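User: These chains co-purify. Model them together.
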Amino acid sequence: MKIDPTSPADLSAQIAKAIRDAIISGALPVDERLPSEAELADQFNVSRPTVREALKRLAAQSLIRTQRGATGGAFVNRLRFEDAYGQQITTSTLLLSMNDVSFATACEARYALERACAPLSAQRRTADHLATMRAETHRQQQPGLTDEAFCASDVAFHRALVDAAGNPVLSYQLAGAVEAMQPLMNMITFSARDRERIIGLHGAIADAIEMHNSMAADDTLAKLAEYTQELAQAVIAQRNTAKQGN
Amino acid sequence: MKIDPTSPADLSAQIAKAIRDAIISGALPVDERLPSEAELADQFNVSRPTVREALKRLAAQSLIRTQRGATGGAFVNRLRFEDAYGQQITTSTLLLSMNDVSFATACEARYALERACAPLSAQRRTADHLATMRAETHRQQQPGLTDEAFCASDVAFHRALVDAAGNPVLSYQLAGAVEAMQPLMNMITFSARDRERIIGLHGAIADAIEMHNSMAADDTLAKLAEYTQELAQAVIAQRNTAKQGN
DNA sequence: CAATTTTCATTTGTCAGACAATTAAACGTC
DNA sequence: GACGTTTAATTGTCTGACAAATGAAAATTG
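Assistant: Joint model of the four components:
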């Protein structure tokens, strides 16, 4: 682990990269304790604040955890799927909002990925996943539900569908795509008839998953994707009309 | 943007969270300049090193960039897909290596996602994407190629296939799944016959994509997924035998 | 001797103040 | 007006210090 002292700027970034590479390569195994900040400062020939900045960078990526006290220090963190979910969702959300990604593009990606899960979900779903899907479908029928709450329930439904595939890697990848869509979905106003149609499709999806019918699940997801795109286009068209009216 | 001064520990984490939330909510738009470190220290009633640790956390996530000089400071960064790729790949790689994710699980996820792209790729592929796929297939036929180089070319082929879908969100999501598999793939030794079969399937995929035949592309991807799983199982079985032999 | 309490050394978290490096704008000079 | 020069602002880094937490060792007590 070495840094280049000739380029005086961004020492903390260089140190962070050196340690990160050591972790990725496996040179620093999980739960290994890093040298103390003072020792690292000595090794890299920098001051302790600089070392600390480097460690904070790594902590932001959940690569290390720190503990105070006599036997404390910085430890290589076992990156768990739950930790990675949050980062993945944050990153995906910002990517969508900062890059003028159209609703159509994001929606297309989301449903393409979800349809990739559907066959596995139909095959492996447990009673638990099915119950969650039914519960969310039921919640969506409540009359006083705000659009936001409706969307949140929609996300919960689709996450249950994805988790039913029983593949944590898929769940992790999909978490970003599904959750990041929520802010975009929240821009849509769902009429009672819209909701009815969506709830109907959700019910059909749950039915298909229950009966291990992957073809039906895929077909219904395709319909849901199409309908969602239609709704969004209507909203966009209406907004443009309103704009021209001003 | 406020922090809780009563819990004295992890002030930098609280400050980072406050600023991150402001960015996510849109209160701090892209390219907006944050207050100087001294001003932030004043606002949050902490010292400058503490503020700096918070800013480094955000820099690690590419949420801000810093610039020295008179008009310098920390600016809200436009998170680009290319920046996010790297983080996504790092996180995915570590997730797989640190959580004992089996080859089968990772492989299943990867091919499920890739097959989600295939119909779009078949529909929209440009001559450029096709040329990349052909070039990589050709490279894979070179006789002296190391297993590692073969895998690298394999990744390049599949990335071209994914990019052909013309959906940056999909490309971003898939980058993690495809690239994170590479260390696992590198554990496999490919015999000449193995390579021949894989190259043949790659050619068939490229053919299907060229002819906009999504069904054929999907079928061939399924075959490739199955064959990859077979190869991996053989390697694992062989390794277990070798272990018992010791 | 065993259990409990106290002390202590280690380590991270935070602070204050300082100086170097960089950068662009303001200023002065030709 | 064009072109160096100065200057102010800002980040990057360093030094030294103290507070807080924490586990281990030492001292105390029953």
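DSSP finds eleven helices and two strands in chain A.
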